[in-house]
Amino acid sequence: MARVSDEELLQLAHILGQKLHAKGWMLAVAESCTGGWLAQVVTAIPGSSAWFDRGFITYSNEAKQDMLGVQAATLDAHGAVSEETAREMAEGALRRSRAHISASVSGIAGPGGAMPKKPVGTVCIAWAAEGQDTFSTVCRLSGDREEIRSRAVAAALRGLIELIP
């Protein structure tokens, strides 16, 4: 399988930007395994400064705690690649920004890092919006590192688009 194309990612970011701009909302993202790719895609859209506030790249557990307020107990109990951690990341991005909506991504893009119950391709994504419940999902993505990461970015963008009323 090929990775999600740059054109498709930009199209999703453009749709997201239109929806955010129409609502007057700002976006923040919290990324681990995607390493800033989500923020890069949205900031590739001209005029994104009107609706993108900031991105947090929190690759280490310490960064997740320091920058987003993820609880050590959550990381100890569930690990960095978990819905619980992804939800705390998304909620932390909202709290520590001017955003109205956020997405977070944490996963195992490979080729190493797999665990018995969390194989390569396990990606947890969460979405949070002011006044709404935070929700999350676990994706089991296939492919090489780049394919997994591009699919994670696309899934985060699609979830944000769906979340905006």
Description:
By secondary structure, the protein is an alpha/beta fold. The chain has a single domain, classed as Alpha-Beta Complex (Maf protein). The chain is 44% helix and 19% strand. The chain contains 6 helices and 5 strands. The protein has helices at 6-23, 37-43, 61-68, 72-78, 83-95, 145-163; strands at residues 27-31, 52-57, 101-107, 122-129, 135-140. Helix 1 runs parallel beside helix 6 (145-163). The radius of gyration is 15 Å and the shape is globular. 44% of the residues are buried.
Question: What are the main properties of this structure?
Answer:
5-stranded mixed β-sheet, alpha/beta, 165 residues, Maf protein, 5 strands
Q: What is the gist of this entry?
A:
With 165 residues, the protein is of the alpha/beta class.
Query: Which structural class should the secondary elements be placed in?
Result: alpha/beta
Shape: globular
- How many distinct folded domains? 1
Task: State the CATH superfamily name.
Answer: CinA-like
Topology diagram in text:
Layout: H1 6-23, E1 27-31, H2 37-43, E2 52-57, H3 61-68, H4 72-78, H5 83-95, E3 101-107, E4 122-129, E5 135-140, H6 145-163
Parallel strand pairs: 1-2, 1-3
Antiparallel strand pairs: 3-4, 4-5
Helix pairs in contact: 1-6
